[in-house]
Amino acid sequence: MNQQITQYIDDLKETLDALPLDKISRAIDILHEARLHGRQIFIMGNGGSASTASHFVCDLSKNTRQPGWPHFKVIGLADNMASFSAFANDEGYTSVFAQQMSAFIQPNDIVIAISTSGNSPNVLAGVALANQVGAFTIGFTGFNGGELGAMVDLDVHVPSHCIEHVEDIHLMLEHLMVTALRQHATLALEVDKVQPVTG
Question: Is the pTM of this model over 0.85?
Answer without folding.
Answer: yes
